[in-house]
């Protein structure tokens, strides 16, 4: 369960709104990290938290990541995220509707400065209830996962080109952790590009199925992070790359879909010191938010594909910039995000 860290600074966000509605049983935090580029867009996460401070910290931390995700994806949104604090018990349909009606009223009160979308344990149906209350809410009915996978694949290819000088994944070994909606599609894309695929999933039947489809093999979930490979693609859980695990990793590139791949910021320097290039998750997995924006704006699939594939160009530029200034791709991405925000502020 998320606990408050010593370094949490509640004043670092542009605005944090606490919402409560005793009748609907709503306790929520809406964090708007930085609204320079436009209204804050970010998902609604719904889960138990041990305290209001822990809920605030998670919302604020995720909202900061959204600021950079949008800035790096050239999208016209600020960074935001919200969390709804639940108990351990499941809500029945009426109680859930009442909760999202109250939450929708709170979002409407913000006058368009926050646009919610789906995140862990919230659904398109919840977003529809928010919209009924007069608030904007994004969530295309279509699943963004294939587009997220396409963006991660573009990021991986660019990383391989920038770091190994190889134009394709042919002959390389790619280890995918978690072969759900994004990881499964990613495994197919890299296999079609000539890579040898290794997969792991707690759902072993699913891992076997994807291995069969891709001509790959399955390893134990406990071994996938340190398995012998060229590229490691985390597509399951957050914080799988820890300080302790870095010395045992054998890959030269990490490019995946999972948000918050690094256990803490210092892991980025550890990876750099170990000669492992980490493509920032908030750059590689931007296909999901690009998809939401595209559907909201009525883009064609061709326009969407072009914008998602541009993630690869961006990664190549970040590789160049990181070489020029020294430092990691995360450093280069954050510097680029800060530049975009500064330019927008004028
Ligand atoms: N779906 C998107 O468009 C999108 C966009 C941005 C980021 N992400 C992130 O990408 C990741 C994957 O998303 P998804 O939509 O494919 O989720 P998913 O639930 O469809 O797939 C996750 C897979 O990981 C497996 N898994 C869970 N714990 C595991 C473990 N310990 N070891 C190995 N496998 C494990 C699950 O069984 C499942 O098959 C998540 O971290 C998500 O936050 C997804």
From TrEMBL:
For this entry, the protein name equals: Leucine dehydrogenase
Sorted alphabetically, which Pfam families does this protein's record hold? ELFV_dehydrog, ELFV_dehydrog_N
Q: Where are the transmembrane segments?
A: none
Q: Which residues form the Glutamate/phenylalanine/leucine/valine/L-tryptophan dehydrogenase C-terminal domain?
A: 142-346
InterPro entries per the UniProt record, alphabetical: Aminoacid_DH-like_N_sf, Glu/Leu/Phe/Val/Trp_DH, Glu/Leu/Phe/Val/Trp_DH_C, Glu/Leu/Phe/Val/Trp_DH_dimer, Glu/Phe/Leu/Val/Trp_DH_bac/arc, NAD(P)-bd_dom_sf
What keywords does the record list, in alphabetical order? NAD, Oxidoreductase
> What does the similarity note say?
Belongs to the Glu/Leu/Phe/Val dehydrogenases family.
């Amino acid at each position: 369960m998320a606990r408050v860290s010593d370094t949490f600074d509640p004043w670092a966000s542009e605005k944090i709104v606490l919402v409560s509605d005793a009748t609907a049983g709503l306790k929520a935090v809406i964090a708007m990290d930085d609204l320079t580029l436009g209204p804050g867009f970010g998902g609604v996460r719904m889960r138990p938290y041990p305290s209001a401070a822990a809920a605030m910290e998670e919302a604020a931390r995720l909202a900061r990541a959204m600021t950079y995700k949008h800035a790096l994806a050239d999208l016209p949104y600020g960074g935001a995220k919200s969390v709804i604090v639940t108990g351990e018990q499941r809500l029945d349909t009426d109680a859930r509707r009442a909760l999202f009606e109250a939450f929708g009223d709170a979002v409407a009160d913000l006058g368009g400065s926050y646009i919610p979308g789906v995140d862990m344990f919230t659904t398109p149906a919840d977003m529809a209830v928010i919209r009924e209350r007069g608030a904007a809410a994004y969530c295309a009915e279509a699943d963004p996962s294939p587009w997220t996978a396409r963006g991660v694949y573009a990021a991986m290819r660019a990383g391989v080109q920038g770091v190994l000088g190889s134009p394709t994944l042919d002959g390389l070994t790619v280890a995918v952790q978690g072969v759900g909606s994004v990881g499964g599609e990613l495994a197919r894309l890299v296999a079609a590009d000539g890579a040898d695929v290794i997969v792991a999933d707690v759902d072993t039947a699913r891992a076997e199925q994807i291995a069969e489809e891709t001509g790959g093999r399955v390893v134990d979930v406990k071994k996938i992070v340190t398995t012998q490979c060229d590229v490691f693609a985390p597509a399951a859980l957050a914080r799988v790359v820890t300080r302790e695990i870095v010395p045992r990793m054998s890959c030269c590139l990490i490019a995946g879909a999972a948000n918050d791949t690094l256990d803490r910021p210092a892991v980025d320097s550890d990876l750099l010191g170990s000669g492992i290039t980490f493509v920032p998750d908030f750059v590689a997995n931007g296909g999901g938010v690009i998809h939401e924006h595209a559907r909201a704006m009525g883009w064609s699939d061709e326009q969407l594909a072009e914008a998602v594939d541009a993630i690869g160009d961006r990664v190549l530029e970040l590789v160049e910039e990181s070489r020029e200034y020294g430092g990691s791709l995360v450093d280069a991405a954050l510097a680029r995000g800060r530049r975009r925000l500064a330019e927008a502020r004028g």
